[in-house]
Design goal:
The protein is α+β, with helices and mostly antiparallel strands and about 290 residues long. The protein is built from 5 helices and 18 strands. A 12-stranded antiparallel sheet has the order 1-2-3-4-5-6-7-8-9-10-11-12. Strands 14-13-17-18 form a 4-stranded antiparallel sheet. A two-stranded antiparallel ribbon has the order 15-16. The chain has a domain at about 170-285: TolA/TonB C-terminal domain (2-Layer Sandwich). A hairpin with a 7-residue loop joins strand 17 (about 255-265) and strand 18. The radius of gyration is 22 Å and the shape is globular.
């Protein structure tokens, strides 16, 4: 009888520890109970080199959703190689990140592709090279960009022959380029005093719509945080100056939608804005896949 009780106690203790060692989230990455969760994340300790090697999983399949390295346990600042997966286990995209900014390859896999459909390389002096591929793996186009503007490009047929270049859809560009954009964020973000005093931090993910003139016309919350952080993130984006508008394949201005993320932390600036190139490149690649 004592042996049975001991086993029962050990079983319940192990279950309790397992619950404590795992964080559960709903589809919006809000904390949830195990029963209501869509994702789960085993809690890890900080390594000797100052990183957290975090793996997120889909609860329904137990398959990886993300495998990457971060400077914080809340997954706000990536720092190292990160890979993201679809629910069926196929790879979505992967990138190399340094302190929240993409530093090397950004590789995107369209659904149904066994090989990368797009690769973006961050180069020196704010240059960026983008290469798109056919489903066969054959190169479709290469483009060289600088501060959000196309400098040169080549297009290829499915057999690999160099052919006449035609523009792909272009994303909006902040006036003056990304350096001015980052300066705007640095100078205008105001960390809500209540949140700063109570060490409330984290990211706010926003869906942003631009009109044909490059003006922000709508901002909505995609991933929630404290209401004061959400309010400040929306204010920051709504008050941006008008951007150079997005262009369609005919070179004509068009409406555009994308996702931007504001991160609030304890840095002297009061917060940082995740590298916008990563998000605009990601949306541009999705438009052209």
């Amino acid at each position: 009888m004592k042996y049975y009780l001991l086993l029962l106690l050990l079983f319940h203790s192990a279950a309790a520890i397992a619950q404590q060692d795992t964080a559960w989230f709903d589809k919006d990455w809000e904390k949830a109970s195990r029963e209501d969760a869509f994702y789960f994340t085993p809690i890890v300790n900080r390594s000797a080199d100052g990183h957290y090697h975090i793996k997120d999983y889909y609860k329904s399949t137990g398959k990886l959703e993300m495998d990457g390295y971060f400077l914080d346990s809340n997954e706000n600042v990536q720092d190292g190689h990160c890979v993201y997966y679809n629910e069926d286990g196929s790879e979505d995209f992967e990138c190399d990140v340094k302190n929240g900014e993409i530093t090397g390859h950004y590789i995107y896999y369209s659904k149904g592709y066994s090989k990368p459909s797009s690769i973006v390389d961050r180069l020196k002096n704010d240059y960026m090279q983008r290469t798109l591929y056919y489903k066969s793996g054959q190169k479709e186009r290469t483009e060289l960009w600088h501060n959000g503007k196309l400098k040169s490009g080549n297009c290829f047929t499915r057999t690999g022959r160099d052919t006449t270049y035609f523009p792909a859809k272009c994303c909006p560009v902040f006036p003056g380029g990304w350096d001015k954009y980052r300066r705007y964020i640095h100078n205008n973000l105001k960390y809500p005093p209540y949140c700063k005093k109570n060490h409330i931090k984290g990211k706010v993910v926003l869906d942003v719509d631009f009109d044909k003139k490059g003006k922000v016309i709508n901002v909505s919350i995609d991933e929630h945080n404290h209401p004061l952080l959400e309010e400040e993130a929306k204010r920051l984006i709504y008050n941006m100056p008008r951007w150079e508008p997005a262009l369609n394949t005919e070179g004509e201005p068009e409406e555009y939608s994308t996702t931007l993320t504001v991160v609030f932390d304890d840095t002297p600036a009061g917060g940082i804005f995740i590298d916008p190139v990563a998000y605009f490149v990601f949306m541009t690649l999705k438009l052209n896949k």
